[in-house]
Protein 1
Amino acid sequence: MRKINIKRETFETQIDLEINLDGTGKSEIKTEVGFFNHMLELFARHGSFDLKCEANGDIDVDYHHLVEDTGIVLGEAIKKALGDKRGIKRYGTFYIPMMETLTRTSLDLSGRGFLSFNCEFEKEKVGEFDTELVEEFFYSVASNAGINLHMDLIRGHNTHHIIESFFKSFARALKEACIIEGTQIPSTKGII
């Protein structure tokens, strides 16, 4: 099983996260930020990943450190759970329609972290959650997991729908890329 637990403590946050890439979509999420909890639950369910995450932080300042550091830890966990990536499909692309919204996520588990995030949110917040943190979260995940990650808003205007669609499309693209389809390391270099 590709399962890992990572803990991270700083002066700003305390995070304990466990992911099983070969799970069934179960989640136990406690981050002090309701909307973020919902997005992580969606990620687990739609990727069929088992995810436990308890995250506390200086949310009296704002949600930035908590969201960013959770992305860092999730990225590290994905990277460690994949191991040497032997046999994985490596690439994944998924479109998610949600009412008027359509997003696309395309990724490569290349070992080289990069994010291209093509979306300008019309609103600065969903409830109390700053929409700029969506890009920050995915940047942290991509950088720490070594994922070449491209996320595009194709159409849509409802901010909640857009963010939810991004989390779902990322989950499904990652699920596809993590599929074991052989025994070789999928690279002409011999390592990823």
Protein 2
Amino acid sequence: MLNLDPGMIIWTWITFFIVLAILSKVALKPILGVIETREKTIREDLEQAQKQREEAEKLLQKHKELIAGAESEAQRLLRESRELAEKKRQELLEEARAEYQKILEQAKQEIQHEKESALASLKAEVADLAVGAAEKIIHMNLDDEKQRAIVEEYLNSLPKNVKN
């Protein structure tokens, strides 16, 4: 079986502690320094990654706001364009209506003028015919102005609906 020698156990422990002390002086401090440096680097990288993530989120939010602003601006421009087009259409319609009314009024005035001209011409012809007929019937020699005055007076004494 196993023989345990107390002297050997003591020397093993002493050797272990000596090697441990040497390793702690020589290797442990550099190993812990490297571990601390590595830990510090990892911590800084994590912090930097967190900052970059926050910046990226801010940029993303800013881009979303810009896109929303651009969309609302586009909608506003589209709405204004439609309103402007509708306004222009209404103006053109009003101009067309005004032109139509103007042409209609001119046509009515022209018709009225032609009617008055035709009536005046007709009155003159009727007066000439009446004068000629009256001259033949009466065999009087009235001067032309008096005859016209008599006929005009007669025509003016007629009711309006008969004249037109």
